[in-house]
Write a structure and sequence with these properties.
Mean pLDDT: 85
Number of strands: 8
Main location: membrane
Low-confidence stretches: none
Protein name: Amino acid ABC transporter permease
Organism: Paenisporosarcina macmurdoensis
CATH topology of the largest domain: MetI-like fold
Strand order of the largest sheet: 1-2-3-8
Subcellular location: Cell membrane
Number of helices: 11
Helix content: 55-70%
CATH superfamily of the largest domain: MetI-like
Number of domains: 3
Distance between the termini: 51 Å
Membrane topology: Multi-pass membrane protein
Strand content: 5-15%
């Protein structure tokens, strides 16, 4: 009689390696079926109301204008271009907001642990006030109580002849491109690439010899050298300063920050930074006190300890919750419709009211926010992997 082998594998429905995969496949199928059910149910409802489904409306004339825009747009352009303007406005708010909120959040979070009583108290009050006030309320306060309370353009507040504050918006000096901007950009990219190589080489030499090779200084010098070269070719700077001046009931030159955009940006930054501050504080407190004591025993100063010992270890703890705050900031930018700033949702509402294409407009908005969130998560996951400890 043939004996059964002790290595006989169990049936696939009992294999512990296969069961998790089967469950995930089953869950994915259920999600797809559920989405298909809702989709075809919506199509049936549209047919009953005598409406058709399709995205052909994106090629039709929009018949409305958008005040704040990064690219040219007029009422004679298409709905598709209107959506593009809204997407770019959303990206502008999210990009600037993430940078400013990160900087402010780190400053406040570190100040919360400061030995200075005044800095610690101010940071604590800031966190408690902005974190516990609804974001929409903060947007309204900044919009109605601050930006719209500025005087009219004829009586605008002038600071040093460079900055103008009025209820039409805040106008600041800005930079315009010149004919040599592309050449400067090419040399800048080459300089950044070479400076990175030089920095890596100097770091390697420093590790091998144990002598200080000043890698950062060499990298900076490489960039400066490569930026001197295009000057000899063009004799022109890559940017020229544009100073705003009042022209009638408007401004010429500079860059105008509209009341809606200003209120939204300030509120998002102040609100999100209060959460980032607590994340930073928690990450710093999670670093072992023995690390700090060892650094002090070596004679390192407090700023050096923070920069070289504490933050490199805390950043591994900070990144995952920090990613969530970035995603929240991107999605919270949809509240711009409350202050008439035409970003993606604001444009979508206008298009929906004119065309009645509710399913199509909502699907576009969902896909854009999903793409932005996934792209942000991808970048943060790459950065998170870069900061992880390398196991031997």
């Amino acid at each position: 009689m043939k004996k059964l082998s002790s290595t006989t594998s169990p049936p696939f429905w009992r294999d512990k390696r296969v069961i998790p995969i089967l469950l995930q496949v089953l869950f994915a199928v259920l999600v797809v079926l559920l989405a298909a059910f809702f989709f075809f149910n919506a199509l049936g409802s549209l047919r009953q109301m005598g409406m058709s489904f399709g995205y052909d409306f994106l090629g039709k004339m929009a018949s409305f204008d958008i005040g704040d825009k990064l690219i040219e747009f007029s009422s004679t352009d298409t709905y598709g271009r209107a959506f593009l303007v809204g997407i770019l406005n959303t990206i502008k708010v999210a990009f600037i907001g993430i940078i400013l909120a990160t900087i402010l959040g780190f400053i406040v979070g570190i100040s919360r642990l400061s030995s200075n009583w005044l800095a610690r108290t101010v940071a604590t009050f800031y966190v408690e006030i902005f974190r516990n006030t609804p974001l929409l309320v903060q947007i309204f306060i900044w919009f109605y109580a601050v930006f719209l309370s500025f005087p009219t353009i004829e009586k605008s507040i002038n600071t040093l002849g460079l900055f103008y504050f009025s209820n039409r918006g805040t106008v600041i000096p800005w930079f315009d491109l010149t004919t040599s901007s592309v050449i400067w950009l090419i040399f800048l990219l080459i300089g950044l690439f070479l400076s990175f190589i030089i920095w890596k080489v100097r770091i390697k030499q420093q590790v091998e010899t144990g002598q200080r090779k000043y890698p950062s200084l060499w990298a900076f010098g490489s960039i400066v050298t490569w930026l001197i070269i295009p000057w000899f070719f063009t004799s022109q700077l890559p940017l020229q300063l544009s100073v705003p001046v009042i022209a009638g009931r408007g401004f010429e030159g500079g860059y105008t920050i509209g009341p809606g955009f200003g209120a939204l940006l300030v509120a998002l930054v102040m609100y999100t930074a209060s959460y980032i501050a607590e994340i930073v504080r928690g990450g710093i407190l999670a670093v072992s006190k023995g690390q700090v004591e060892a650094a002090k025993a070596l004679g390192l100063k407090s700023p050096t300890i923070l920069r070289l010992v504490i933050l490199p270890q805390a950043i591994r703890i900070i990144i995952p919750p920090l990613t969530s705050q970035y995603l929240n900031l991107i999605k919270n930018s949809s509240l711009a419709a409350a202050v008439a700033y035409q970003e993606l949702v604001g444009v979508g509402i206008t298009v929906l009211s004119q065309t009645g294409k509710s399913v199509e407009v909502i699907s576009i908005v969902i896909l854009v926010y999903l793409s932005m969130s996934l792209f942000t998560s991808l970048l943060m996951n790459i950065f998170n992997k870069y900061t992880q400890l390398v196991e031997r």
